[in-house]
Amino acid sequence: MAEATPILSVQDLVMHYTTRKGDVSAVDGVSFDLENGKSLGLVGESGCGKTSIAFSLMKLLPDNAKIKGGSIYVGGTDILQLSHDELLKFRWQRIAMVFQAAMNALNPVYTVGDQIIEALDLHWGDLSREQSRERIGQLFEMVGLDPKLMDRYPHEFSGGMRQRAVIAMALSCNPDIIIADEPTTALDVIVQDRILRELKKIQEKLGMSMIYISHDIAVIAEVSDRIGVMYAGRMAELADGVDIFEHPLHPYTYALMRAFPSIKGEKHELVTLPGEPPDLLFPPPGCRFHPRCPRATDVCKQEQPPFADNGRGHFVACWHPMEANHE
Amino acid sequence: MSNNNDKPLLRVQGLKKYFPVGGGFLRQARSFIHAVDDLEFDIPMGGSLGLVGESGCGKTTTGKLLVRLHEPTDGQIFIQNEQGELEDIAHRKGESMKTFRRRVQMIFQDPYESLNPRRTIYDTVAEPLVVQGIGTIVEREERVAALLERVGLTPATSFMFRFPHELSGGQRQRVAIARALIIDPVFIAADEPTSMLDVSIRTGVMNLMMELAGEMGVSYLYITHDLAVARYMCERIAVMYLGKMVERASTEELLANPLHPYTRALISAVPVPDPRISRQAIDIKGGVSAPIDPPPICRFFARCPLGDDFCENNPHPPMEDKGGGHYVACYKV
Question: Which fold has domain A8-94+175-316?
Answer without folding.
Answer: Rossmann fold (3.40.50)
